[in-house]
Amino acid sequence: MISYCFGCKSFFYYLCEPKKIAMNNRRAYEIAFVGLKPGIHEFNYEINDKFFAHYGEQDFSNCKADVKLQLEKHSSFMLLKFDIGGTADVNCDRCGNKLTLQLWDEFKITIKMVEEPEIMNEQEEDPDVYYISKGESHLYVGDWIYEFINLSIPMQKMCSEDEIGGPQCNKEVLEKLKQMKNDANKNDNSIWKGLEQFKNLE
Asked: What is the C-alpha separation between 158 and 95, in angstroms, rounded?
C-alpha cells in the first residue's frame, strides 16, 4: 500500500515530495516484462481510494478492489487478463442512499511490440489491442486498472428489485416516488377519460 504523509517539513520538502510520491506510485504498477521468461506470470494489486487520488473525483468511494493480473508473455506480444473483484460504495440512483456494490468483471488486453507504436495505436480500431515499442522494458498497468474498475461499476447504480425497501434503502424517498408515480397515472387517466368509447371506431 502507498500512504501519503506530508507532516510539518521544510519548504523544500513540499516542493520535492509530490514528485517522489508520484514516481513511487507509478513504479508500483510497472512490470519489468523484459526480464520475464516466456509463459504465464501473475500479479496482484490491492486498490483503495488513495489509488484514485491523482485521477480526480470519482462517482464512488470506499473502494476495496482486488485486481489479479495474468500476463502471458510471448516473443513479440503479451496477453493480459485482469480479474476485478471487491466492493465500492455509490449513491443509489433510485433513493439516493449509499449502496455497496460488488465488483466483478474480467478484461483482456493484447500487447504487441512493434517499431512504430504511436502510428499503430492511432490506426488500431480494436480497443483490446495496444502497441508498445520493441525497445520498451517496462509496462505500466495503472491506467488499465483505473479504467477496468470504473467499467466494473454499472451505469445504473441501484439494488435489485427484490432488495427494494431493504435496510440500505431510503424508505421516505421510495414512498415519495411511489406517490408521484400514482399521481402521474391518475393525471394520465384524466386526460383520456371519456375517449375510450371512440377507441375501436374506424
From this structure: 9
